[in-house]
Amino acid sequence: MGLKYRTFLEGSSVYGCSNCKTHLSTSDAVLSRQFIGQFGQAYLFDSVVNVVEGKAEDRKMATGVHTVKDISCVRCKTLLGWIYIRAHDQENKYKEGKCILERKLLANIVC
Asked: 0.85 cut: is pTM over it?
């Protein structure tokens, strides 16, 4: 098994895994803070790093059915949220390729 290289982010506000502090994204990549996840408030991100994707599955959500993959921290495997693969209605197509991270599972990292 090879080494897993992690990306380290720079910026005024970096979000990391609350368990191991691995960098995940920055405040510049936040598209919305108006989402609800399994643990309460969740953020929609344009991009994230240092995550592994699970298997794609259709999931019934508040805004309809979406094909999603769970995403976990590459270092400690903590489940952090999901990535939208496909929105089944036109109104939610903007979510495709975007990631939801649960606020409760994020830490603010000081760089």
From this structure: yes
Strand partners, 44: 32, 100
Q: For the range 9-12, what are the long-range contacts, defined as Cβ-Cβ under 8 Å and sequence gap of 24 or more?
A: 9/49, 9/111, 10/111, 11/111
Work out whether strand 14-17 and strand 106-109 pair parallel, antiparallel, or are unpaired. Answer: antiparallel
pLDDT in tens, 28-61: 999 999 999 999 999 999 999 999 999 999 999 9
Report the C-alpha gap between 82 and 21 in whole angstroms.
18
Q: For the chain, what is the radius of gyration of the CA atoms?
A: 14
